[in-house]
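Troubleshooting log. The previous run stalled partway through. Resubmitting the same three chains, unchanged.
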Amino acid sequence: MSNFAKTFSSSLGKKLVMALTGIFLCTFLIVHLIGNLQLFKDDAGQAFNAYAYFMTHFTPIKVVSYLLYASIIIHALYALMITSANKKARPVAYAMQASNQNSAWTSRNMGILGTILFIFIVVHMGDFWWKYHNAELPYARYEISLDNPNDIQVSEVPYDANRLVHSEIVDPQAGKKIIISKDLYKVVQNAFQTWWYVLLYVIAMFALAFHLVHGFKSAFQTIGWNNNRYIPLVRFIGVWVFGLLIPIAFAAMPVYFFLFK
Amino acid sequence: MKLDAKIPAGPLAEKWSKHKFNLKLVNPANKRKYTVIVVGTGLAGASAAASLAELGYNVKAFCYQDSPRRAHSIAAQGGINAAKNYQNDGDSVYRLFYDTIKGGDYRAREANVYRLAEVSANIIDQCVAQGVPFAREYGGLLDNRSFGGVQVQRTFYAAGQTGQQLLLGAYSALNRQIALGTVKMYNRHEMLDIVNVGGKTRGIIARNLITGEIERHSGHAVLLATGGYGNVFFLSTNAMGSNVTAAWKAHKKGAFFGNPCFTQIHPTCIPVSGEHQSKLTLMSESLRNDGRIWVPAKTEDAQAIQNGTKRGNDIPEEDRDYYLERRYPSFGNLVPRDVASRAAKERCDAGFGVNRTGQAVFLDYTFAINRYGNQEVNRLNLQDADEEKVKELGIAVVKEKYGNLFDMYKQITGDDPYQTPMKIYPAVHYTMGGLWVDYNLMTTLEGCYALGEANFSDHGANRLGASALMQGLADGYFVIPYTIGDYLADDIRTGAIPTNSPEFDEAEKAVIDRIQFFMNNKGTKSVDFFHKRLGKIMWDKCGMARNAQGLQEAIEEIKALRAEFWQDVRVPGNAESFNPELDKAGRVADFLELGELMCHDALHRNESCGGHFREEYQTEEGEALRDDTNFAYVAAWEYKGEEKPVLHKEELVFENVKLTQRSYK
Amino acid sequence: MNLTLKVWRQPDTNSEGNFETYKANDVSEDMSFLEMLDTVNENLIEDGVEPVAFDHDCREGICGMCSLFINGRPHGPLHGVTTCQLHMRSFKDGDEIVIEPWRANAFPVIKDLVVDRTSFERIQQAGAYISVNTGAAGDANQIPVPKNDADESFAAATCIGCGACVAACKNSSAMLFVGAKVSQFALLPQGQPEREKRVLAMVNQMDEEGFGACTNTGACSAECPKEIPLSVITRLNREYLRASLTSKD
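Second attempt completed without errors. Output:
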């Protein structure tokens, strides 16, 4: 085995893989959230659909997205490998274990939280990513006044296999910009009309919060960063940004659509 | 048999250098033809095993614990002395030598002690190189503290865990050799007999404490680094497993036992709380630097404290008796251990003791807290600080210096020592006596060496604080690696020692017979039952103060107890598995013999010196009265079975120091 | 006070074990936990039952021999205290106390509550030392060591090797122990020449012994009787990563 392979097959190396993929996934969450904030724009989904098109058709982003899928799978696979080895490390269980006296619940249940998240990701991608790429979705046609960008007329265009996913024409005579894009916004809107679906999302975001409250700082621990000066910052970001802000913002989307759209 | 200490001739300061030159050497290529057995892996054993293996010898090391690192050296708190003179306060090899000889009440060998002082500096170098994290100053250099009985700062330390850090250093060196294959380590093994073949020690019989298997191990020399025998008192600061068995077996096979009655009773231990007590806990001597020791001056106050109607804080200043400061104004609370212990006993015997049992004195930190608090107030310029603030600041300083000890005290007693004075009482701590060895550390058994606390050599009748660690490591790192070569050089043609000789058969049979006896004996009392009774006899009659009548009684009582033990001891379980009761039975059987020898020794020594205080021999003020004309010798005892042991004397020659009455007044 | 003990009994490594219930009566609050067990054992011996085997030696919290998983926690309910320093005033009359051995694949039970911790020995033999022969050292004050480093190194070196970290960890991970050993040497100038080799070898041995991986729960440090900080694990991670990237071996 080469030295490098040896490193990554050790218990510390495997954890390092978990940490690196985990941090990468955390950065993606930020990008994903910023994009999804377009959902709150009152433009009948035009910005959101443009964003969806950008994310799926801009080559560098596409490369990153494949890295992302790989990261999710590697993160999960390594978690399984480590968990199974950890189980073997204690063949006979304690009759009594007062773990709550010495460690946080989240830190002991990353596997369960991670599993919830994994199921969620599969459902989530099936509903949006898969549909966007493969389903025969209708198009939305936006007529935007060049004088007043807030003046948007929207109409539905039926599915057409030959149509581009996204097209833009500026018609100076009419004083309009016409955008026709695959209408992912509608899919989102429809999905979030179902109460149990919204609930699933909210639960998943709870899982995300707990997963990251431990996971974010834990990743830095595993990478070996422990300078007293910036560790408080890492902890702060872990709790307030990844443990609260991001999950709440994500959870707000289905709730908002369920209540107001 | 005439005892020959083999002390080299010549001026004191040149003895060791010249001796090293005169010792025979073993050629590096030949060293691998030898096997050396090391029993015990404390400071002396681990350092010896590692150093000999580094030289190229094959080493087999044995310890009864599950790891060599757990040997009881680990529990030493205060520090290790070395004549480095880093503080520029006038320390020197000669001063360390002199302090040690004087502290030992002139009952140690000059040449050995000088050598100890000489190599002390190398020990610190070696330990630092191994990564021992000694306390340091801000400049990055080593820090020192002072200890009882001396006037220079020469003690190196690692918080209150110096023994642990030094042992981990020696242990790491040992581990390195184990990994290299030069040391074969036998954990959870107990040596149960020594084997002599053709007049030389050639091996041991050991029991695997997990499987119960009896094993034969042969070697060209056997090193006993098995520590002291304080557990003969049942209650001591030793570890539960500390025992005399290895040394005693050697004694029974011909090694003389030197000064067995020299026992150190440490003044600052946590008092006995009840019958259930299994061991006593030491509070570092360093506490006497800042604490003041007292008892109530009035008997009625003492009684009120004993029956719980008053507490220490209730006694007004004028009704307190700071007896050490009263009796020894110049050294005060920092008199040597033996003096401090006896003074505590004297007060308690007179009815001024303060525990429920009346067997305790106060160690009071109120003054230190106050003093440190005021210092802080000045340093921080807090003019309007009230009493509470001063106390708070003072407590913070004390916490930083002694926090772990105070925590430990609170843990054990349930009392908060920051608020109420601690209760302390002397307890058995160290045994200066041990196997008699010559200058080369060889016992009277050829090829059998004794190192560290297991030998008698360097501390005379009383050991100074922070000197035990020094001696253990000196013996292991810097003495035995030289002196053993001189003996082994003659063995060059011997080759491997077979373990199928009649001598091994015989020794193994004796071991098995004894184990079988224990297993088959249908007694009714547990081992501890006898051990506790032995301890009580020893403590009452061969403890801090002894007298002829008591010692004679003790000898008879121990004989009777021994007979009862062999008749009525019950050992449950079986011999073919892990059986701690069986291990204990063997150890206590040996203590029952040793105890008697200690009493014989104490009885014959008609003087008081160091830790040995014979009530008949004291000055009018109650101080120890030494008799240099008749007793300036090492008492080396030869085992004679059921008969009375035979005394051999090694006269102590003092060419460099003048024998004076120790005075700490 | 009177107590009920549920104690794990197991004759040897290969046998099945089970819990036995014993009464401990007239327990004084001044007793240490082990002294309480001593008295239970005395009674068992009197009744002709083999006493409960447990490891112990110094009984002053420093040798690291004692173990015991007491009511779900290594070394019992108090922080920063070994079993031998735990006193019965931490319990109350009528309590039921469950006593188990350390449970880990790498710590097989020898008998009852006694486990085999030689896996720790082998980890240390893999590299927890500085290769300096006796006599080869220069003057101790030749190399100044910054006080902070010396203190941090000391804090790591206070590890008593009891195994409570492994016992507490849900993964039976030995990271706190190994982290303490690696940190002690990594922080000192004397430890530099073998810095990379040491951490790689020790981690490798740790994995071979069958300890689990660290999931940063912090249970080890929270239960450590010597309160070894979690930062030693961070340092171990860093040292390992560093060595993996830079080692010349």
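Takeaways: Chains B and A do not touch (no CB pair under 8 Å). The first helix of chain B runs from residue 15 to 22.
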